[in-house]
Write a structure and sequence with these properties.
11% of the residues lie in helices and 43% in strands. The chain has 270 residues and is mainly β.
Length: 270
């Protein structure tokens, strides 16, 4: 391929160090089998326009992932259409990327005459060259994720993570209750009984005094994303009655991933 023939390419992007992206794909592959990534064209008049967007529900329907990586986060970004969407088998995609060292820059490009192939090239002395077969992935329904005006809280990252992890050894579903000053974690187990623990709220907004919020969620797959929060960082939690549990994670050098856990059926017996 001619390196200076921009008109021959649908897409041509470069990531400075692939390791963080590979790790993200690995985490997402535990939740999603076939994924649809959408690249959008940049706009010289709007620095915030353009980049990579991924919005999809998990296979079990219990989680929704909203990933956004702005064009400025790429070492190089060229998208020759308003939108270019690609479908990938996540397990195979991770296997391919995992063949490349974490600190290595990687280029991804698609040629106009072969839009069914994503060319992956490591930029090093002895490059890894992969011509990855793309697939058609049906667009999934996007749930109601309008979080503006919803109750938002901050809690200690470590305590939230530890309680959820320990509870998962006993039950899949965790019942969360939020009142004026604390968040309560409840589970019921046929073997043990009922367990309740709580942590203080460090900050709260958009929550009316005296309002009690309840929700039952399966949070197991979300816990691996806590790697993206520093141990001394607080966790931002958006939660409301009859609304998903929404957690936001910042991905180093890339962007933001928002994960929403759909409320479980309140009649479910764990």
């Amino acid at each position: 391929m001619s390196q200076d023939s921009k008109s021959s390419r649908l897409l041509d992007v470069e990531i400075a160090e692939i390791g963080t992206f590979t790790g993200l794909i690995k985490k997402l592959s535990t939740m999603i089998v076939d994924a649809r990534f959408i690249f959008s064209q940049t706009d010289s008049t709007n620095k915030n326009k353009g980049g990579l967007v991924f919005k999809q529900s998990s296979e079990d329907g219990q989680s929704f992932i909203d990933l956004r990586i702005g064009a400025s986060k790429f070492q190089k970004f060229l998208c020759n259409k308003d939108y270019v969407d690609i479908g990938v088998d996540m397990k195979n995609f991770h296997t391919s990327l995992n063949m490349i060292g974490d600190k290595v820059a990687v280029r991804f490009y698609i040629l106009k005459n072969t839009p069914e192939v994503l060319h992956i090239r490591s930029l090093e002395d002895y490059p890894v060259k992969i011509d990855f077969f793309l697939q058609t992935v049906t667009e999934t329904k996007v749930p109601n994720m309008l979080t503006e005006g919803r109750p938002c809280f901050q809690v200690e990252r470590g305590r939230f993570y530890t309680i959820c992890k320990e509870y998962l050894a006993v039950a899949n579903g965790i019942s969360l209750t939020v009142n004026d000053d604390q968040m309560l974690f409840n589970i019921k187990s046929k073997e043990i009984g009922e367990i309740c623990r709580c942590i203080p709220l460090l900050d709260a907004s958009n929550n009316k005094k005296g309002k009690v919020i309840n929700g039952n969620f399966e949070v197991g797959k979300v816990l691996s994303f806590f790697d993206y929060l520093k141990r001394d960082d607080n966790l931002k939690v958006i939660i409301d009655n009859d609304f998903p549990l929404v957690l936001t994670f910042a991905i180093p050098s890339l962007g933001v991933v928002v994960i929403a856990c759909t409320p479980l059926d309140t009649g479910r017996d764990d």
